[in-house]
Write a structure and sequence with these properties.
- By secondary structure, the chain is α/β, with parallel strands linked by helices.
- About 35% of the residues are buried.
- It has one domain: Rossmann fold.
């Protein structure tokens, strides 16, 4: 079981590059049930916000809907993780959203996160899996 960071969904939506293609492969693996994946409900907010800024409201609505309908992706609530997120910020200096993602993963006993965010490498309790290694 892995936690999938919001950047995987965002790269798949906005990049027509190798990174975007790898992100799409990861999402395909999730949809097919070949990758047991979880992410926080917070991820929806991040996807919609970034896509709104980059591609406009219609694109943001479409990507938000695709995210919510992705087969086999399990969404984790973020309630009850803020104390842990606060400790992650204090210990590792992560941004609030990154800290919430880490706290959500840890609360759910998930210790691997697919992400291209190198800031997560600071967190000793988890192992970050870069996108290109997630589909090898």
């Amino acid at each position: 079981m892995v936690y999938v960071d919001s950047n995987v969904f965002i790269y798949a939506a906005i990049y027509d590059t190798e990174k975007g293609r790898v992100a799409k492969r990861i999402l395909t693996e999730i949809a097919k049930g070949k990758l047991d994946a979880r992410t926080a409900s917070l991820t929806w907010d991040e996807i919609v916000w970034v896509i709104w800024r980059v591609g406009g409201a219609a694109a943001a609505r479409a990507e938000g809907e695709k995210f919510l309908r992705l087969p086999n992706l399990k969404l984790l609530p973020v309630n009850g993780v803020l104390d842990t997120a606060q400790r992650v910020i204090e210990k590792y200096g992560l941004s609030p959203r990154d800290a919430i993602h880490v706290a959500c993963a840890l609360k759910n006993r998930i210790f691997e996160i697919i992400s291209d965010d190198r800031e997560l490498d600071k967190v000793k309790e988890i192992r970050r899996i870069p996108l290109h290694k997630a589909v090898e």
